[in-house]
Design brief:
- The protein is mostly helical.
- The chain is globular and about 30 Å long.
- Helices cover about 65% and strands about 0% of the residues.
- The protein is built from two helices and no strands.
Length: about 50
């Protein structure tokens, strides 16, 4: 099954961009399994160590 790509909507200023990112992230969390997004977060956090 091919996944639909969703892009982050650009904002007209910094505040709007942050709000758009939060909305994007909430949608991502709701549309992906806990296991999938938590493993991606784990990779990100581990790469910072």
């Amino acid at each position: 099954m091919k996944k639909k790509r969703v892009f982050l909507k650009p904002g007209k200023d910094n505040k709007e961009e942050r709000i758009n990112f939060v909305k994007f992230w909430v949608n991502y969390i709701k549309s992906h399994s806990d296991k999938e997004w938590s493993s991606q977060q784990n990779m990100l956090i581990d790469s910072q160590i």
